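Appendix B. Extra example for self-study. Work through it before the problem class; the solution is given directly after the inputs so you can check yourself.
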Amino acid sequence: MMCCICRRDARGWGFAPELIGIRAPAVKQCSQRCQDITGKFKGMIDPNKHETNALAAAGISGGAFVEEIGKTDLASWTEQEWATLVDVIVTSFQDFLRQAYADDPPI
Ligand SMILES: [Zn+2]
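Solution. Structure tokens for the complete assembly:
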């Protein structure tokens, strides 16, 4: 299961909105930090502005990698090129999200 905030592996933290009277599914987190963020959102996990912006940033990073290798036909990609693209996108998403929460934490 993934952390509902940063999408890393969940590691034992959780948040059950029903315990505070909110009908929403229970979610898991990777750390106390991400659990605190979840609590501030009261467990609501719809995409927020940080997640939407993180997806956009990840898309830009992925696009830059594609331009760097100069191959747009996915069928011609090596397994390593594909793995690197996924890594670039996921790492960019996570880095952007962590920085966005650090710069503009939920109230
Ligand atoms: Zn997390």
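Self-check: Residues 3, 5-6, 8, 29-31, 34 surround zinc ion (CB under 6 Å). If your reasoning did not lead you there, revisit section 3.
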